[in-house]
Design goal:
This protein is an all-alpha fold and about 120 residues long. It has helices at about 1-10, 15-40, 45-70, 75-100, 110-120. The protein has one domain.
């Protein structure tokens, strides 16, 4: 088991993107709670919902990574899981920026416009 864990966390590009995903998720949780407290919109129900969502995504991604590594399935460990980890990591970063913006911390217009495009919002609505 120790060899398996060492293999999982050493010398892999998956590890770098996985760390990015974990830190982005943690920052998203922290800034989400801070933003809701700042704006007076905090509810325990919303907090539970957000934590549950983060937990489920974490479990699915981590399970996929572990299964792929255990059974040496390169497509899962290097392809599909990296895409999933990258996608959710980027979405978490966008959420962090959005939370900061909701707290009144200035975000450059270019970043706000890019976030709107990614989220599918249209200025002409």
């Amino acid at each position: 088991m120790e060899d398996f864990l060492n293999q999982l966390v050493t010398g892999s590009s998956v590890l770098g993107i996985y760390k990015f995903y974990i830190w982005a998720g943690v920052l998203d949780i922290i800034t989400g709670i801070a933003q809701s407290l700042y704006n007076g919109t905090y509810t325990a129900e919303e907090n539970k919902k957000g934590l549950l969502t983060h937990s489920v995504v974490f479990i699915v991604i981590t399970s996929g990574l572990l299964v792929g590594r255990e059974h040496d399935i390169p497509m899962i460990t290097d392809g599909a899981i990296m895409a999933g980890i990258g996608f959710f990591g980027i979405m978490y970063v966008l959420s962090v920026i959005e939370n900061l913006n909701k707290m009144g911390i200035p975000v450059p217009d270019v970043v706000v416009k890019a976030m709107d495009k990614v989220r599918g919002k249209n200025e002409n609505k």
